[in-house]
UniProtKB/TrEMBL annotation:
It is an enzyme of class 1 (oxidoreductase). Residues 534-669 form the Fumarate reductase/succinate dehydrogenase flavoprotein-like C-terminal domain. The lineage of its organism: Bacteria, Pseudomonadati, Bacteroidota, Flavobacteriia, Flavobacteriales. The keyword Zinc does not apply. GO terms for biological process: anaerobic respiration. The keyword Electron transport applies. Residues 36-472 form the FAD-dependent oxidoreductase 2 FAD-binding domain. GO terms for cellular component: plasma membrane. One of its GO terms (molecular function) is succinate dehydrogenase (quinone) activity. Belongs to the FAD-dependent oxidoreductase 2 family. FRD/SDH subfamily. This is succinate dehydrogenase. It comes from Planobacterium oryzisoli. It catalyses: a quinone + succinate = fumarate + a quinol. Its cofactor is FAD.
Length: 670
C-alpha cells in the first residue's frame, strides 16, 4: 500500500521554499541531455514546463491531442492572472494573497503549497512581460490591475478579455524556440492512453496517433501530466468539448491517488443553457463582475412577465430590482467568491425569481447601466464638459466599458443576439473548474515515483474553491518556477541510467490493454451513441452531484451511475475503424473514464459530511443558507486509492491539513 508523505519542508513558512531549493539535488548542465522527460498536455502548465525543461537542456517529448499547442483550453481563460505585486498600493502582499487563497478555498488547502504559489506569483508577471504578453496598462505605462471575487485588493493582471490566449502564446513561443533547437519533440494529435510503470517508476506512456490510429510507445525517465481538469464529466460545462480526465485517470489506475474529486467549481457568470441539444456552455469572464451588478426582479410577477416576454428588464425601475449579492454580502457585494455567488443565484432562481425561459427558469441579470453612467460622468468631468446631457454621459461611459471589455460584449451579442450595453446580460452558474485531481506532494510528484502532475490536473493549491484568476497563476507557477527545480531532485539519480527501452514487458502489457479496449469499442454491437451515455451521466451529475447535494441524492447518483456504466459497456456503438481518424472512438475512451470518475466523485461527496467551498451539502448548511464546515472531522485531503473496477471499493487515505500560520474561522464575506 502506498504511504502518503507530503514532503513539506521544515522551518518557517516564508523560508520553506527557499531552503528546500537550496538543499535539493541537481542535474549538472552537461548531464541533462542524457535524460528524457515526457510532458502530457501543452496548456499553460504543460507548455511552460516543457519550454523550461528544454531550455535547461533536458530532452522533452510533448504531447497534445489538439492539432497545435496553441489550441489548449488555457486559451479560453478571459479575465486575468493574479500576482502579489501591489502595483495599486492598496495593501496587497505575498501573505495577503496566501491568506485570500486559503480562505477562498474554505481552509481545505495545504499551507506550504499555497504560500509558495503566492511567493512565486510576482515572477510570473515579469516572465510574461519579457515574452511580450500585452498586459493592460494605465495611462502612465504601468501594468494595470483589476479586482476579482473573494478579495478586497486589485491584483489581477489582464489582457482585455483574452488573458489566457496571450499567456498561452507566450508559453508557445518559448516552446517553439526549443522545438526549433531540437530539444522539444512535439507530438500533435496524439493522446495518452496509459502510463507505463517499470520497477515501480513511471517510465513512459502508450499514445494513440489520432490521425492514423497507430498505437505508439514512448519512454522517458519521468512523466509529467499537465492535462487539465475533469469538468466535462458533467457533459455541459465551460470546458472545451475535448477536455477530459483520461491521462489523470490512467495514472490513478496505475497507483496515483486521486484527491478531493468532489471539489468542483461552479462559475456564476455563464450564459444560461438554451436547449437540450447544446453541447457546451460559454463563460463570460468574472472580470465583468468588477463593473456589472447582479440582480433579479424584486417582484415575482415581474420575473414571470420577463420570462413570458411581456416585460423588458431595462424597463424595470431601480427600486424594483433586487441586487441580492449587495444585499446579502455588503462588504464584498458582487465580488464574493464564485461558490458563494453561484449558490446565491440558484437560491433566487429556485425561489421563482429566475428570468430565463428555459423550462427551469435559470437565469439572473448582470447589468452594466450603473457603471456606464458612473464612468460617463467621470469622463465628462475629465473632458471639462459642463452640464453634459444624459446621452453624452451614456456615450462616454459606453466608450470606457467598450475599451475595457469590448471583445466580451461582442462575443455575448453574437451568441444571444442581445446588446449588453442596453439589455443586461443573462447569466447562470455552470461547471467550470475542478479543484480535485491527482494527489501530489510538495515536489508535485504523485504516489508513483517519477510521475509528476501540474496545473489543474493535480489536486491543486485551491482547496474547496478556486479564487478567480488563480488558475493561470498556478499553471505557470508550476511549469516555470516549481517543477523545473523539484523534478531535477528526482532525475539526479538517473544520469547513468541510459535510455529507457520500449521493448520491456511493462510496455507490452500496457499496449495490449489499450488495444484490447479499442477493439472492444470497435466491435461492440451496441445501439446507442457515446453522447447518449455522456448526457445521461451529465444529467445525474448536475442534478445530484452539482451545486446542492444531499445524502439521498448522492446515494441515488451512485446507483444510477453504476446502471449507466453497465449499460454503456453493453450497448455503446462506436462507428468507424480503429486504424484511422475516429472521433467517436476518442470520445468512447474518454467517457469510459468519466463514468468511473463520476462514481468516485459521488462517493467522495457522500463521505465528506460537511459543506465547504464548492462542495455544498444541504444537510450541512447554516440557517442563513451558508456552508457549514466540520473542521473537527473533515480537515483533511481525501486521497483515494484505486482498488479494481468496483469503484465502491476504492480505499480512502487522509492527509491532515495543519494550519500554523493563519487562524481557521468561518468564512464571511458580509
Amino acid at each position: 500500500m502506498n504511504k502518503l508523505d507530503a514532503k513539506i519542508p521544515m522551518g518557517p513558512l516564508e523560508d520553506k521554499w527557499k531552503n528546500h531549493k537550496n538543499h535539493m539535488n541537481l542535474v549538472a548542465p552537461n548531464n541533462r541531455d542524457k535524460i528524457d522527460v515526457i510532458v502530457v498536455g501543452t496548456g499553460l502548465a504543460g507548455g511552460s514546463a516543457a519550454a523550461t525543461l528544454a531550455e535547461q537542456g533536458y530532452n522533452v517529448k510533448a504531447f497534445c491531442y489538439q492539432d497545435s499547442p496553441r489550441r489548449a483550453h488555457s486559451i479560453a481563460a478571459q479575465g486575468g492572472i493574479n500576482a502579489a505585486k501591489n502595483y495599486q498600493g492598496d495593501g496587497d502582499s505575498v501573505y495577503r494573497l496566501f491568506y485570500d487563497t486559503i480562505k477562498g478555498g474554505d481552509y481545505r488547502a495545504r499551507e506550504a503549497n499555497v504560500y509558495r504559489l503566492a511567493e512565486v506569483s510576482a515572477n510570473i508577471i515579469d516572465q510574461c512581460v519579457a515574452q511580450g504578453v500585452p498586459f493592460g496598462r494605465e495611462y502612465g505605462g504601468q501594468l494595470d490591475n483589476r479586482s476579482f471575487g473573494g478579495v478586497q485588493v486589485k491584483r489581477t493582471f489582464y489582457a482585455k478579455g483574452q488573458t489566457g490566449q496571450q499567456l498561452l502564446l507566450g508559453a508557445y513561443s518559448a516552446m517553439s524556440r526549443q522545438i526549433g533547437k531540437g530539444r522539444i519533440k512535439m507530438f500533435n494529435r496524439h493522446e495518452m492512453l496509459d502510463l507505463v510503470v517499470v520497477d515501480g517508476k513511471a517510465r513512459g506512456i502508450i499514445a494513440r496517433n489520432l490521425v492514423t490510429g497507430e498505437i505508439e510507445r514512448h519512454s522517458a525517465h519521468a512523466v509529467v501530466i499537465a492535462s487539465g481538469g475533469y469538468g466535462n464529466v458533467y457533459f455541459l460545462s465551460t470546458n472545451a468539448m475535448g477536455s477530459n480526465v483520461s491521462a489523470a485517470w490512467k495514472i490513478h489506475k496505475k497507483g496515483a491517488f486521486f484527491a478531493n474529486p468532489c471539489f468542483v467549481q461552479i462559475h456564476p457568470t455563464c450564459i444560461p443553457v438554451h436547449g437540450t441539444q447544446q453541447s457546451k456552455l460559454t463563460l463570460m469572464s468574472e472580470s465583468l463582475r468588477n463593473s456589472g451588478r447582479i440582480w433579479v426582479p424584486k417582484n415575482i410577477e415581474d420575473a414571470q412577465a420577463i420570462r413570458e416576454g411581456r416585460l423588458r428588464p431595462e424597463n424595470i425601475k431601480e427600486e424594483d430590482r433586487d441586487y441580492y449579492l449587495e444585499r446579502r454580502y455588503p462588504a464584498f457585494g458582487n465580488l464574493v467568491p464564485r461558490d458563494v455567488a453561484s449558490r446565491a443565484a440558484k437560491e433566487r432562481c429556485d425561489a421563482g425569481f429566475g428570468i430565463e425561459n428555459n423550462d427551469t427558469n435559470e437565469g439572473v441579470y448582470l447589468d452594466f447601466s450603473t457603471e456606464i453612467m458612473k464612468k460617463g460622468r467621470e469622463a465628462a468631468i475629465e473632458k471639462n464638459i459642463s452640464n453634459p446631457s444624459e446621452k453624452q454621459i451614456y456615450d462616454l461611459g459606453k466608450a470606457w466599458v467598450e475599451e475595457k471589455y469590448g471583445n466580451l460584449f461582442v462575443m455575448y451579442e453574437k451568441i444571444t443576439a442581445d446588446n449588453p450595453y442596453v439589455t443586461p446580460m443573462k447569466i447562470y452558474p455552470a461547471v467550470h473548474y475542478t479543484m480535485g485531481g491527482v494527489w501530489v506532494d510538495y515536489n508535485l510528484q504523485s504516489t508513483i515515483p517519477g510521475c509528476f502532475v501540474i496545473g489543474e490536473a493535480n489536486f491543486s493549491d485551491h482547496g474547496a474553491n478556486r479564487l478567480g484568476a488563480s488558475a493561470l497563476m498556478q499553471g505557470l507557477a508550476d511549469g516555470y518556477f516549481v517543477l523545473p527545480y523539484t523534478i531535477a531532485d528526482y532525475l539526479s539519480a538517473d544520469i547513468r541510467t541510459g535510455a529507457i527501452p520500449t521493448n520491456l514487458p511493462a510496455f507490452d502489457d500496457a499496449e495490449n490493454q489499450v488495444k484490447e479496449r479499442i477493439n472492444f469499442f470497435i466491435n461492440n454491437k451496441g445501439t446507442h451513441s457515446v453522447d447518449y451515455f455522456h448526457k445521461k451521466l451529465g444529467n445525474i451529475m448536475w442534478n445530484k452531484v452539482g451545486m446542492g447535494r444531499t445524502p439521498e441524492g448522492l446515494q441515488e447518483a451512485i446507483q444510477e451511475i453504476e446502471e449507466v456504466r453497465n449499460d454503456f459497456w453493453k450497448n455503446v456503438k462506436v462507428p468507424g475503424e480503429a486504424n484511422a481518424m475516429n472521433m467517436e472512438l476518442e470520445k468512447a475512451l474518454r467517457v469510459a473514464d468519466f463514468l468511473e470518475l463520476g462514481h468516485l466523485m459521488a462517493i467522495d461527496a457522500l463521505k465528506r459530511e460537511e459543506s465547504c467551498g464548492g462542495h455544498f451539502r444541504w444537510d450541512h448548511a447554516t440557517p442563513e443558507g451558508e456552508a457549514e464546515r466540520d473542521d473537527d472531522n473533515f480537515m483533511y485531503t481525501a486521497c483515494w486509492e484505486y482498488n479494481g473496477q468496483n469503484i465502491n471499493e476504492s480505499v480512502l487515505h487522509k492527509e491532515p491539513l495543519v494550519y500554523e500560520n493563519i487562524e481557521v474561522k468561518q468564512r464571511s464575506y458580509k
